[in-house]
UniProtKB/TrEMBL annotation:
One of its GO terms (cellular component) is protein-DNA complex. The keyword Secreted does not apply. It holds the Pfam family LysR_substrate. GO terms for molecular function: DNA binding; DNA-binding transcription factor activity. InterPro entries: LysR_HTH_N (IPR000847), LysR_subst-bd (IPR005119), WH-like_DNA-bd_sf (IPR036388), WH_DNA-bd_sf (IPR036390). Residues 2-59 form the HTH lysR-type domain. This is LysR family transcriptional regulator. Keywords: DNA-binding, Transcription, Transcription regulation. It comes from Paraburkholderia acidiphila. Belongs to the LysR transcriptional regulatory family. The keyword Repressor does not apply. It comes from the Bacteria.
Length: 302
């Protein structure tokens, strides 16, 4: 394997075409520099310079090798710079999971926006997954970060979770419903409605919240069509196929034919960011630091 130091010595001599001046640039004595160039020529099996008492010039082989040597040194420099950035957490890749409703939240948007500003060279990739699935994938190493809800799954295997927001629940009801004109309602008032939910086995915190509300109110829910996207559930509400229990930020989906009514007796869902420790990379650690800033503001506001 070629010695990068000798390549740098060779390029400097090739640029100066004078061993004395090259030695000054490299801050070494001339005799060692001469020996390094001779060793490089011996290793390559070619002469790189023609030397005389009056001049030093590159051989034809040296001219060709100079271009390649510069390319190698440039690539080595870029690799070293990349390694430094990786060590500082300013470059890399973060795989992020999110539940279908999370992208509508202000906390999600703020953290991702800040990551783009603070870590512009870090590539963020996004994958939709239920909270329970996110936790499994983080432990397995296929996801680095998960945006979900704390109502699902116990955290283990080094998995950590941070509450970044608390989101009230609302009922999305058809605008022609008797409930649509109310300022708020108790969950038991929905006992005769058909509920639209995410698919069974999806691991949804919203479905878990609905089950809890039904148990507390003594309601035996009638389940209607299912859909894997919160936006699709809202569309089904507009089509008068039932009602849906959704986070309050879903109000941003202003669909014609849908009204959002606050639930007076439903606890807020805790929106979380999850990761595993030890951190999978420095850039993941820095991303979590950005999430902590949002979480601290949430804590101060409660």
């Amino acid at each position: 394997m070629l010695d990068l130091r000798r390549l740098r010595y060779f390029v400097t001599v090739a640029e100066e075409l004078h061993f004395g001046r090259a030695a000054v640039r490299l801050n070494i004595a001339q005799p060692p520099l001469t020996r390094h160039i001779a060793a490089l020529e011996a290793e390559l099996g070619i002469r790189l310079f023609e030397r005389s008492t009056r001049a030093v010039k590159l051989t034809p082989e040296g001219i060709v090798f100079l271009e390649r040597a510069r390319s190698v040194l440039h690539a080595a420099g870029e690799a070293q710079a990349t390694a430094r950035k990786l060590a500082q957490g300013v470059t890399g890749r973060i795989a992020i999971g999110y539940t279908s409703s999370i992208p509508m939240s202000d906390a999600f948007a703020e953290i991702v926006r800040n990551a783009g500003r603070v870590l512009p060279e870090v590539e963020l990739t996004f994958r939709e997954a239920a909270t329970a699935s996110q936790h499994r994938q983080i432990v397995e190493g296929t996801l680095d970060i998960g945006f979900g809800w704390s109502a699902v799954n116990a955290l283990d295997d080094g998995l950590c979770s941070l509450v970044i927001a608390r989101e009230p629940l609302v009922a999305a009801v058809p605008s022609g419903s008797v409930h649509a004109r109310k300022k708020s309602l108790a969950f038991a008032e929905l006992r005769d409605e058909t509920f639209l939910i995410l698919p069974p086995g999806y691991g949804s915190a919203l479905t878990a919240a609905l089950d809890s509300l039904c148990a507390q109110a003594g309601v035996e829910p009638r389940i209607g069509p299912t859909a894997s996207q919160t936006a699709t559930l809202v569309s089904l509400v507009a089509a008068e196929r039932g009602v849906a229990i959704v986070p309050a930020f879903t109000v941003a989906l202003q669909r014609s034919g849908v009204a959002y009514v606050p639930l007076s007796d439903a606890p807020a869902l805790e929106q979380t960011v999850s990761w595993i420790e030890p951190f999978t990379s420095i850039c993941v650690e820095r991303f979590v630091e950005l999430a902590r800033l949002v979480a601290q503001r949430e804590t101060r506001g409660t």
